[in-house]
Amino acid sequence: MSKFTTIIGLEVHTQLKTQSKLFCGCANEFNPDHPNTQTCPVCLGLPGALPVMNRTAFDLSLKTGLALNCHIPLFTKWDRKQYYYPDLPKAYQISQFDLPFSENGWLEIANDEDGKPPRRIGITRAHLEEDAGKNIHDESGRGGDSCVDLNRTGTPLLEIVSEPDLRTASEARRYLEDLRTLLLFIDVSDCNMQEGSLRCDANVNLHFHNDDGSVTATPIVELKNMNSFRNVELAIEYEAKRQKKDFEKTGRTIDDAPKVTRGWDAERNVTFAQREKEDSSDYRYFPDPDLVPVVLTQTEIDAVREALPETPAKKRDRFQSDLGLSEYDASVILGQGPELTAYFESVASTCGDGKIAANWVTQDVLRDLNASESGLSEFPITAEILGALLKWITDERLTNKSARDVYALLKERAADGQAISASDVETLAAEREIVRDTGALEAAIQSAIAARPDAVEDVKAGKLQAIGPIMGMVMKQVSGADPKTVREMLISMIQK
Ligand SMILES: [Zn+2]
């Protein structure tokens, strides 16, 4: 009974890009250096203060639900989830229980196996809720104070829950990467994991396949504290191995043990037991009497759907089918976000060749961007400049090598503080244009033939590789000479 499948579902919390918090006018900003400066009676939970829903937060969650192909109900409401934490002053969180803003959708992700069609991962629901604050404990071990910062209390979070459709740790990572890319393209969150605007929990268990065709499932574990996609992948890999060992030793199944929470220790690369997971009945959900239900019309939903930009999954398909990109190159470009993707699309359309544009963007441009401190907006080789340069290649008027020389020269000029433009490309490229003019090449070829009679004899005797050194002499003499033309002319002149 050793054959098993790993069953993974992910819960992603993403902070929405609004100016103010979900139910009050306080600024929605990451501001850890000035604790408790972004608070008011509503987010402090003072008696008598009344919440009002932030319409932008709702619009962004609607946009996300539609981009995730979810069903959007026309009637939804807010619920109170009761629990006590020092950083949750009301002792309840405003969330959504039985009627979420969106449900039953899917996200298409690239297949882990090369050449296989994309996989659809089910989205159970996506609902809005308010975030808690932050408890800050003295970790020096000297028994210092614990502090509470309520700046983050009440910021809008969208919780996106997937179906348990993921099967490997690397697939879970792919899902997260593609979800993040989608959220960036529809511009609902900055998805900054360091600042906590994208967080992920994973539900993991194993299904052992018995000889009689039945399945035995291990207890479900919820993994927390994973602050990077890499850590999500590592934690799931570790947890699957741990559950296999535990099952082989104890035989405990999902029926014998409650769901538990385990944390991820990134220092030691292990998961550790935290607590038994509460049941939803422990939270005593009930409709929030301070907030009106949210009622939508189909016309409103259709208008938001119409206005959705092209999703990354559709762009990936189009880049492969229309521009001839590999799945890998398309994913690398899209994974860099909307800005670089727009840059690539502009370069590809100017030069007229998606593959050449992708090669330059994924190699030269990304290398230079990674090496520099600044972003694409400061990058001196604009899409217009690179597009103009690559047009010379697609027109077969410039070799790749000469184009790299021009690119390097332009970067040097920009580093010296000179303004560079597409017209500089024209001047520099023209100086290196491929020479196919037979008149200009003939004299150089004749003198090379005269200089290497030995090689000429070898070529005449059928040793075609001897043509190399003669060609080298011509290429050196006429900069930009087209190798193909030189070779053809050489052979015909030697054989005369
Ligand atoms: Zn407030």
Automatic annotation (TrEMBL):
<keyword id="KW-0808">Transferase</keyword>
<feature type="domain" description="Asn/Gln amidotransferase">
    <location>
        <begin position="342"/>
        <end position="494"/>
    </location>
</feature>
<dbReference type="InterPro" id="IPR023168">
    <property type="entry name" value="GatB_Yqey_C_2"/>
</dbReference>
<dbReference type="GO" id="GO:0050566">
    <property type="term" value="F:asparaginyl-tRNA synthase (glutamine-hydrolyzing) activity"/>
</dbReference>
<keyword id="KW-0436">Ligase</keyword>
<dbReference type="GO" id="GO:0070681">
    <property type="term" value="P:glutaminyl-tRNAGln biosynthesis via transamidation"/>
</dbReference>
<keyword id="KW-0547">Nucleotide-binding</keyword>
<comment type="subunit">
    <text>Heterotrimer of A, B and C subunits.</text>
</comment>
<dbReference type="InterPro" id="IPR014746">
    <property type="entry name" value="Gln_synth/guanido_kin_cat_dom"/>
</dbReference>
<dbReference type="InterPro" id="IPR004413">
    <property type="entry name" value="GatB"/>
</dbReference>
<comment type="similarity">
    <text>Belongs to the GatB/GatE family. GatB subfamily.</text>
</comment>
<comment type="function">
    <text>Allows the formation of correctly charged Asn-tRNA(Asn) or Gln-tRNA(Gln) through the transamidation of misacylated Asp-tRNA(Asn) or Glu-tRNA(Gln) in organisms which lack either or both of asparaginyl-tRNA or glutaminyl-tRNA synthetases. The reaction takes place in the presence of glutamine and ATP through an activated phospho-Asp-tRNA(Asn) or phospho-Glu-tRNA(Gln).</text>
</comment>
<keyword id="KW-0648">Protein biosynthesis</keyword>
<protein>
    <recommendedName>
        <fullName>Aspartyl/glutamyl-tRNA(Asn/Gln) amidotransferase subunit B</fullName>
        <ecNumber>6.3.5.-</ecNumber>
    </recommendedName>
</protein>
<dbReference type="InterPro" id="IPR003789">
    <property type="entry name" value="Asn/Gln_tRNA_amidoTrase-B-like"/>
</dbReference>
<dbReference type="InterPro" id="IPR042114">
    <property type="entry name" value="GatB_C_1"/>
</dbReference>
<dbReference type="InterPro" id="IPR017959">
    <property type="entry name" value="Asn/Gln-tRNA_amidoTrfase_suB/E"/>
</dbReference>
<dbReference type="InterPro" id="IPR006075">
    <property type="entry name" value="Asn/Gln-tRNA_Trfase_suB/E_cat"/>
</dbReference>
<dbReference type="GO" id="GO:0006412">
    <property type="term" value="P:translation"/>
</dbReference>
<keyword id="KW-0067">ATP-binding</keyword>
<dbReference type="Pfam" id="PF02637">
    <property type="entry name" value="GatB_Yqey"/>
</dbReference>
<dbReference type="Pfam" id="PF02934">
    <property type="entry name" value="GatB_N"/>
</dbReference>
<dbReference type="GO" id="GO:0050567">
    <property type="term" value="F:glutaminyl-tRNA synthase (glutamine-hydrolyzing) activity"/>
</dbReference>
<dbReference type="InterPro" id="IPR018027">
    <property type="entry name" value="Asn/Gln_amidotransferase"/>
</dbReference>
<dbReference type="GO" id="GO:0005524">
    <property type="term" value="F:ATP binding"/>
</dbReference>
<dbReference type="GO" id="GO:0016740">
    <property type="term" value="F:transferase activity"/>
</dbReference>
<dbReference type="InterPro" id="IPR017958">
    <property type="entry name" value="Gln-tRNA_amidoTrfase_suB_CS"/>
</dbReference>
